[in-house]
Amino acid sequence: MKRVRFFIRHDRHDRHDTNFINLFCRGGVYSYSTPQRSVNTVMSTLLDFALKYLNHGLAVIPLWRDARKNPHLKDTLEFNHRLPTEAEWRRWARVWPDANVGAITGYWLNYVALDFDDQLTYDVWRKKAGELPTWIIKTRRGYHVWFKVQDDPGHSRLFVRGDLEVLLRAKGGYCIVPPSIHHTGAPYHTINKTLPLTIPTITEVLKGWQEKANLTEKSTIARAYVPTKTTVRIEDLIPPIKEHPNYRGAYLAWCPFHDDKTPDGTPSAWINIKEQRFGCNVCFDRQYWDVVNVYAMLNSMTNGAAYKTLRVRA
What sections of 34-105 are H helices per DSSP? Predict the structure, then answer.
């Protein structure tokens, strides 16, 4: 893979801002898709990005690198109120060295992102908004345009202009950032290497766009956990113990990945039938797996192969 070299004028920014820009520029340099990159190098790159994002107030979390784009963690709400620690990210990078990175929006320093899903919508917006000096990430099909707003950004919501829609990722959402790789192999990379532009309110850059009213649950506003439609269910792979679930809907279950014997005879694993999740307090503390991940581990195959095997085709 050819390395791309960016040149930055250091006289225009102080050291803090320059480091911030260098971090975002590097999204165009690194890619996990290079075959010869060792696991240790990939893990080092992931951790390097994550720690620098944290240093600049972005709450970043590890994501599955597949079509669902779900978090590796079973619960991310706490990171709306605190940043992950360096120790947490070192552990995550060791457990999931090829994870993607998601930046929680709306809470920390009021960072938000406009998520354009296609080139046409982005071009129409840019024609009206102009060439803004802000951080822009190229995705497989569209763009993520980042801003730092001075007012309360509110929750994630859609804005429309005619038949076009753009999603504001604010509170309740997260946005994928470099050095992540789309499940098709396309990298997320920076194309405008500068700080997120500070603006009074998001409507300053959405003139001519109207907030879409009466959003339904079908709208992909917050990137909440989305159970995968599969030909088998989690309870088929790991049977629950037939007792009442806890307040989160989780049933106790025996873990198939270790000798699940505790002193008091209580299983260490759990499954959530409604959300199709599995977790084990011994093997995977504070983490969860879905039916695809469990099927892959039980059958010694990759997540991608398991997804192709189990997914429900339309």
Answer: 39-55, 86-95
Q: Where are the alpha helices (DSSP H) in 86-174?
A: 86-95, 119-129
pTM exceeds 0.70, yes or no:
no
d(CA 290, CA 74): 10
Q: How far apart are CA 206 and CA 212, in angstroms?
A: 13
Q: What is the rounded distance in angstroms from the CA atom of residue 310 to the CA atom of residue 128?
A: 44
Blockwise average pLDDT, block size 10, the chain, 314 residues: 38 40 44 45 82 91 87 87 94 92 92 94 93 94 95 92 92 93 92 91 94 53 58 90 74 84 75 86 72 86 81 60
The label of the residue with tokens 């947490």 reads: 88
Give me the residue spans of the domains in the chain. 10-211, 234-310
* CATH domain 234-310 topology: DNA Primase; Chain A (3.90.580)
* DSSP bridge pairs for 45: none
User: How many Cβ atoms from other residues are within 10 Å of residue 133's Cβ?
Assistant: 11
Are the C-beta atoms of residues 213 and 152 closer than 8 Å to each other? no
